[in-house]
């Protein structure tokens, strides 16, 4: 699997996961989904995706681990998917997040950001 086209989505909204997985797959991306934050680091290490979409309001979301294991060590691009009432900012631990999308997320906006982050790293 070419991790340059791999996206990992971590969210517990199954309808959203299904919609984004189908839409991003149609755009040519390899998409893996998980539904809980405790699987985020092990899945990211195993899959080594280029882009990770994550809901930071999930129970068990650990800012330090995301910063250290995903952003610093794996150099993955992280996009936060937040609810309109979320207090999440563009910082996770001491790391800057690439982008923050507020729900409801439109597939076209998500594809645009993913493509942007893929082209920046090439």
TrEMBL record:
Keyword line: Phosphoprotein
Domain of life: Bacteria
Domain Response regulatory positions: 6-118
Cross-referenced InterPro entries: Bact_response_regulator, CheY-like_superfamily, Sig_transdc_resp-reg_receiver
Pfam families found in the cross-reference section: Response_reg
GO biological process: phosphorelay signal transduction system
Name this protein carries in UniProt: Response regulator receiver domain-containing protein
């Amino acid at each position: 699997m070419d991790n340059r086209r791999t996206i990992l989505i971590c969210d517990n909204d199954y309808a959203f996961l299904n919609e984004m997985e189908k839409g991003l797959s149609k755009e040519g991306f390899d998409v893996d989904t998980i539904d809980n934050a405790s699987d985020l680091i092990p899945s990211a290490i195993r899959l080594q995706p280029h882009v990770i979409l994550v809901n930071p309001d999930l129970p068990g979301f650990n800012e330090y681990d995301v910063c250290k294991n995903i952003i610093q060590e794996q150099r993955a691009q992280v996009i936060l998917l937040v609810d309109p009432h979320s207090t999440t900012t563009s910082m996770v631990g001491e790391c800057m997040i690439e982008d923050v999308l507020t729900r409801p997320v439109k597939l076209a906006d998500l594809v645009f950001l993913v493509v942007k982050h893929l082209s920046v790293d090439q």
